[in-house]
């Protein structure tokens, strides 16, 4: 008897059946009633065209081979892939099979989309997702055992794990399958009637049909049987665990039935019953599952295990008709909760506990129009990954008040997470105050111990952060912009195992190939905050080089030969946004066109930055065991809102790599570089780099000259008026007006001590505001004695700033 009638689904195959019609055929999969979210979903009025057949990778998908361990998440936000590493298309194993009668309620092109959108299958590496001893979903893809089956209501499959590589490189089982977590989970599912979701991979050879997408959700199943059976392995006969699942709802038609035989293999409980016999040897009861006859399946305790009473070819055994056609009514227990195949869209952020960048908003969603699992690729929204579908869901990002950011930073500071400096890092200088920033400089050696670069950390304080146009204002402004931040492929671009970065990025100015080349927008069109930050980083870059070179000279370090002492004006910025739990894993910035200086401004949540030697760098950090694949960090430090880090020296990127892990709700990193157009292969790229990398004239009003010593003395931000009227001087490779100076520190007290402090303040201030010093020299009355003294002092003691102790 069949439960599918031609009434139910008339149109066979995905080419003629739209997703909407598929839902009508299967109303439980409808979406309207499930959508509680207050997100605004943008849907096209017309029903989307069903997706095109996707590009299929030939990459071995070892889903069913892995031990079904819960692998929490990918950790692959690194930037390492070239797009041309994308795996090529291969013929489908199922291409000659009939198409399906229907269309899956939920499906995905990419494994990452599947895992990020479905709470019942958050397993990037293994074929089973289980949590707290309960299995939630299994993916049956490439690897399968000989007798595995995927029928319309029944699936038979082997418990994963315990396979080894044979001589030909195939994954095979060579010994009796051992007890594993996965096995325990399946046993628990059988005993406690836990439902689980089955996902069919497109390369699954056990299907009777051509599955339409790389990953297609079949539906909710329950485990009816679990047994051990003997199979032939290269090592001889071995025992493996096999389990049988049945659809929970036997009345609903199966979309994956063959279009040419839609009612095949559909039965109801009681129609067929597999016989059960008690073993005369061990007394245990076993079902008859093979057509060849009955055998005891008690491998553990019966010497007659798998004894049919006559010789059988174990390889040729098939399951009995009664066993395949038997149906078991699903019994709910107190524990039973059927998963929603289409999960809810996340609720809108409320601006109290949630602001739109928490973990739940980083997850993917299932498209409300076509069922396509879609990753959160854009900072601002979800966009259906089916190119034939117009569904979008705006991801509201509410502004986080700077008070919350300051609290996050203060809490992290209070947690006293220790920084680390390995003695391999030869010299450490500490400048107590560079333009108001408490500054550390680390010098990094190569494998021969020669200094190849410096790392300057410039720490902002609350006064600096609160200045008009300072980090607080920049953070607030960035939150209000649509910067078009996007996640890009980090691994296996284009393949079904593609992994996107865990951060969202947008490039400005010259094109920068950061792993994958991403489109860049010229500085001319950049928002003010991007220009403002670029100016601030320019100042930081200039100061960092100045201080680096000064102390090289003082120490007569040979490093000065490899480090350029001139600052080259930046022509590129990579703006990165991080949600909570976002990160950028170890990478270097060393594309071949990279100039010597890389400077980053941190805004928002605090973060931890680590630098480690590359595996093949030849640098041996303390305690490093050479056989370890990855070397430990040699420098680790915390970065707070408003801090800047300058890496100077191209070779740093040959020997070291860095990672940054944010520690809060929302963080931006704005990183400027100089990209050498002359090293670009393509003429059009060279021209575009020069054009897009040019700072527009309006950027001049954001010129930055450091903040005053922060002992409570305020300085004003130069106004556009004062800049416009200032004389023009040449600096670096752009024409730059001399900035109107920020106010010099006024006398704090009238005591001798106060005068001395003022003098030091003034000196420090002029040290870090050379343009301002010039300006005063040209424009102020001659009797402005302290300024002249300060200028003299500046000439006589250029290392004045390098005093003081260590700070975080
Ligand atoms: O988030 C950060 O601070 C680091 C950014 C970075 O490493 C990069 O843009 O290359
Ligand atoms: Fe970087």
From TrEMBL:
<dbReference type="InterPro" id="IPR027450">
    <property type="entry name" value="AlkB-like"/>
</dbReference>
<dbReference type="GO" id="GO:0006307">
    <property type="term" value="P:DNA alkylation repair"/>
</dbReference>
<protein>
    <recommendedName>
        <fullName>Fe2OG dioxygenase domain-containing protein</fullName>
    </recommendedName>
</protein>
<dbReference type="InterPro" id="IPR037151">
    <property type="entry name" value="AlkB-like_sf"/>
</dbReference>
<feature type="binding site">
    <location>
        <position position="587"/>
    </location>
    <ligand>
        <name>2-oxoglutarate</name>
    </ligand>
</feature>
<dbReference type="GO" id="GO:0035516">
    <property type="term" value="F:broad specificity oxidative DNA demethylase activity"/>
</dbReference>
<dbReference type="Pfam" id="PF13532">
    <property type="entry name" value="2OG-FeII_Oxy_2"/>
</dbReference>
<dbReference type="GO" id="GO:0051747">
    <property type="term" value="F:cytosine C-5 DNA demethylase activity"/>
</dbReference>
<dbReference type="InterPro" id="IPR032852">
    <property type="entry name" value="ALKBH2"/>
</dbReference>
<dbReference type="GO" id="GO:0008198">
    <property type="term" value="F:ferrous iron binding"/>
</dbReference>
<feature type="domain" description="Fe2OG dioxygenase">
    <location>
        <begin position="569"/>
        <end position="676"/>
    </location>
</feature>
<dbReference type="InterPro" id="IPR005123">
    <property type="entry name" value="Oxoglu/Fe-dep_dioxygenase_dom"/>
</dbReference>
